[in-house]
Amino acid sequence: MSSLDRSEQCFERMKEAGFDVLVLGRDAHALAMTGTRRLTLSGTRPFGPSCIVVAAARTVTAAPVTWSPANVVEWLQSCAAPSTVRRVGVDGMTPGVGLLLRGAWPDATFEDAGPLLRALVQMKTPEELDALRAAASVAVAAFGEMVAALRTGATSAELRGVFAAAAASHGVTTPAFEAVAAPLGGSTWLPAPDGRLSIDDTVVLRGGVLRQGWEASLARTYRDGRECAPAGWDDAVRALRPGARVGDVAVAHGVGRGIERLGPDEHLEPGMVVAVEVADDTALRQDVFAIRDGDPELLTSTD
Amino acid sequence: MEGTGVDVLVLCGQANISFATGARVPACDQARASAWRSVAVLTAGEDRPVLYTAFPEGAPDDVDVRPFVAVESESAAAAFVAGLPTGRLALDDAPFPLWTAVAAREPQDAAVVLAGAKITKTADELECIRQAQAINEEAMRSVRPVAQPGARTTDLSGAFLRAIAELGATANTVDPVFQITPPFAPGEPQFPTVTEPFALRDGDVVWVDTGINRHGYASDFGATWHIGHAPDAQQRDQFARWRDVVDRVLEVVRPGATGADLVAAGSNADGTRPWLSYFYLAHGIGTDSAEMPLVGTDRGDEFDASIVLAPGMVLVMEPVIWDNGHGGHRSEEIVAVTDDGYCWLSERAVLDDAGG
Q1: Contacts of B157 in chain A (CB under 8 A)
Q2: How far apart are the first and last CA of chain A?
Q3: How far does B311 lie from chain A, in Å, by closest CA?
Q4: Does B31 contact A257 at a Cβ distance shorter than 8 Å?
Q5: What ipTM describes this predicted complex?
Q6: What was the pLDDT predicted at A282?
Q7: Chain B residues 208-247 with CB within 8 Å of chain A
Q8: Hey, are the CB atoms on A42 and B108 less than 8 Å from each other?
Q9: Distance CA B288, CA B124 (A)
Q10: Could you report the per-residue pLDDT of A115-138, keeping only the tens digit for each?
Q11: Apex CA A212: angle with CA A206 and CA A218, to 5°?
């Protein structure tokens, strides 16, 4: 499904929810609406309008590059005249931008667009699943290079560099997160920057990419050059059936354009894509699965 | 916070939290970083910031570490706000559920506290930026030889990312930009764009822009590369004009000079600005890769005049020169304002093909 189709769906959902306008700041949301990727910067960024969706006019407009609040207000009003704007959905807020938005549309109320956006993108179309499979193939290939480079004395930074260069050789330069190599038992996200891996370590590797904005990630555990899996992994995978409550299975989060929020009381449905992580004292494993009728599809297979 | 009237400062922005607490978090894309975001609370009269985080291992010892709060969820955000100290509250950025929960406290923008604190750097902060920049430049020395006809732009990114990891960068912050810039653009060229795996060809002009992080502080490298051949006379002239703008501006950089003074110094004799209209003459850098002071933007003369240079301010000089039909030149050089002028935090024209 193209971004055009997603934006058409968005207009309908906005009408149902009573939103006149959406002002979106998150890259993943703007990308879903416009289909245009922007330069990726890591980390959080303060909310600011990067894309505006107007239900009545059925338009999606990317923000102009400007540093001037007056120009932003003028642009917002040119997309949606103040007299037409009563309810605005946003995906974040800052006190400064709040003043600016109220200046543009004095009669409007501002509400959370999060539930609408989550519902809009949660079920993946066949084309989106293909994009996630393509992301997974890059993540798995780069991960394989990292495994091949795993040796006593290596540092996490060195292996992070190996993963990044390998992903780039497949044309992908945006990580979902910077790859990690860390001894099991310590932090597997923020290992000591200068720590070296020892022959005695059981080592957890993590890697993930965003290919054309679509995420895939995986983690595995190695000891003496052999992969080990946590007890309960097979059971965790078998539990990934339509109807399962998210809080009752080992789902860490949804997967799409980056990670997607999934509440514990939501239920798995065919078309969802999820990250599953299981850890015990001996090993940690994480993979991405597409939920379907019957067994789930493992996207990040290393076999 | 003293003198601002703010009693409680709530920070959700990663760069602001890094500035206020020194805490580290994994380098992630925006969606993941937002879902996993830490929250820092600073209270007037209290020495220790409180940090709610999923990554306590990244917090310095002088921080009061508490469990992660999911401020993207309504119930968790409401419970979090109910537990905040009383008084006048300021906030930098909020997922909307947190915004809803905190709205009754009529939050001010955290800039009232942070802007003044962040805009001038301590000697330690300047050293962090200098070290981050040195790693960025050193990595680029190993990437430049790769930029030959036939190589793909993403191969350059790969070489860069591998090099910075080995040289001691704690994170990469900008998806490396190796933008093949055509000589013509409708109006002005778009920059930066996403780096796609394009093969370099003889005669290409590549605008390079990379940013890495070391111990929470950013760097910013910019250069213009000419692929497969030496720059021609016009390309050397573009570099000369770029250098001339920077040199004219540097002549007036000292405490007390205003942003308007810098813009006037960098402008053409007829008052027009020789840089892209949607860009700037210079920006600051710190825990954010581009932060105040922003000088020579489209925000207007009054705003530029309101910026008064002081010792410790950092200027990343970035006036993009463009001759439609003949391409352009884009580089970056970084100085810090000192008591009587400025000092360099970057090398000059490092790896600029037309500047060698």
Answers
A1: 168, 173
A2: 30
A3: 25
A4: yes
A5: 0.96
A6: 96
A7: 211
A8: no
A9: 16
A10: 999 999 999 999 999 999 999 999
A11: 15
